[in-house]
Amino acid sequence: MNSNLPPDWYQTQAELAAQELDYDLHLAACESAIKDGIAASLQPMPEPVRDNSVYNFNAILDGLLD
C-alpha cells in the first residue's frame, strides 16, 4: 500500500466510480457492451499455413517416407 496516498483515497475512488455507473441501463445492453469490448481486444486468428501443418499431415508423412 502506498503511504503517500491519503487514508480515504480508495473510498473516494470507489465513490467516483459508482457515480459513473448507469443503474438504469438494461442488462442486455451491458452484456452487449462487454461482448463488444472483449471482441475489440481480440486479435483475429491467423490463417493456417497449409503447406506445413496438420492440414497437410499425410503429405508431410509421405515426404518423410520417400
TrEMBL record:
Name of the featured protein: Uncharacterized protein
Native source species: Desmonostoc muscorum LEGE 12446
Top-rank lineage group of the source organism: Bacteria
